[in-house]
């Protein structure tokens, strides 16, 4: 079973992977999502537990579904 910290790390890595695949700078995606860059950086590093609304905004700006954003392999 995955604990909270592990899940945060996995989701953060997934967001970073999708963002990099689309060649979107971290600062640009953070701005589009109305999230401070420092907070977005922490999110990608797994240091914060994003709300479902935050995940929705990120998914929308990456043009993926929330389920694609949170897909854990």
From TrEMBL:
Annotated PROSITE patterns: HTH_CROC1
Return the InterPro entries for the record.
Cro/C1-type_HTH, Lambda_DNA-bd_dom_sf, TransReg_Diox_bact_type
In alphabetical order, the GO MF annotations are: DNA binding; DNA-binding transcription factor activity
Sorted alphabetically, the keyword list is: DNA-binding, Transcription, Transcription regulation
The yes or no answer to whether the keyword NAD is present is no
Asked if Transferase is a keyword of the record, the answer is: no
Show the GO cellular component annotation of the record: cytosol
Which Pfam family is an annotated match for this chain, by its short name? HTH_3
* PANTHER family registered for this protein in UniProt: HTH-TYPE TRANSCRIPTIONAL REGULATOR, HTH-TYPE TRANSCRIPTIONAL REGULATOR SUTR
Q: What is this protein called?
A: HTH cro/C1-type domain-containing protein
Origin organism of this chain?
Answer: Patiriisocius marinus
